[in-house]
Specification:
The chain has 259 residues and is of the alpha/beta class. It has helices at residues 37-46, 81-93, 144-156, 174-177, 179-187, 197-206, 237-258; strands at 30-34, 48-55, 61-67, 70-76, 98-107, 117-126, 140-141, 161-169, 192-194, 210-220. A hairpin with a 2-residue loop joins strand 3 (61-67) and strand 4 (70-76). It holds the Pfam family PNP_UDP_1. GO terms for molecular function: uridine phosphorylase activity.
Amino acid sequence: MGVLKLPKYVEMAGGVAPVTECKAGEIAPLVILANMRDHVVRAEALLEDITVRNDSVWGVNTITGSYRCTPVTVCCAGIGAGQTSNVMEELINLGGKIFLQIGATGAIQENIAMGDTVIPTGAVRDEGVTRYYAPQQYPAVSDYRVVNALVKAARAAGNTVHAGIIRTTDGFYPSQRIEEYVKTYKDIGVLSVEQEVAAILAIAACRGCYAGASLIVVGNLVTGSHSWNGDSVELVENEYFDQIGFVLDALVELKDELL
């Protein structure tokens, strides 16, 4: 007999999930994941009939409302694959089925400019979470229908779009700033680096869901451009936060195709 006695998923009194503090009936099948609270605030201005406003003690902000007459949940999951996996597990348990990430990324190809949009077709699993879900040979890929919907919506919004493989890493500073890592992935055509997408794609696939991401380029590791560069700030804040509009459009378009 095995040693594990604790259930696979735990909950607090009243069926409340411990990380998101959400419960059954509060999460829509269509979910947007974000890194920052401001994305939830921007979404709130676009949604109607908001029924859930939840701010957990762990800093996870969640709202559920309607967009184009379709129930949608928007959740600020924070930064990093570990916390994102905790949030995704709970949201899937509570009914989430299609997950689209809104995030930022650092480009590693010279032709990708600040403010461009990167739509990952897949992600290098260079983080620590997904090894608990699948062998390393298991790919973290996005369903082609999700990629197509995001590319179409981003271009309709006037964005310059790059679709391809990205890299997900746990280390914002160390692994993104080491020359050998950057050069290796640049030379094999990887577009950019960030911290959540591989986990989102792999978890969704392992649990029978769909996932994708829209990433705004806030820096380029090989040209030296960056939004947060002291006194030489190149602002892409509007592009970063305005993603919420076209990602909502893509999410609703995917409803009839995938659900």
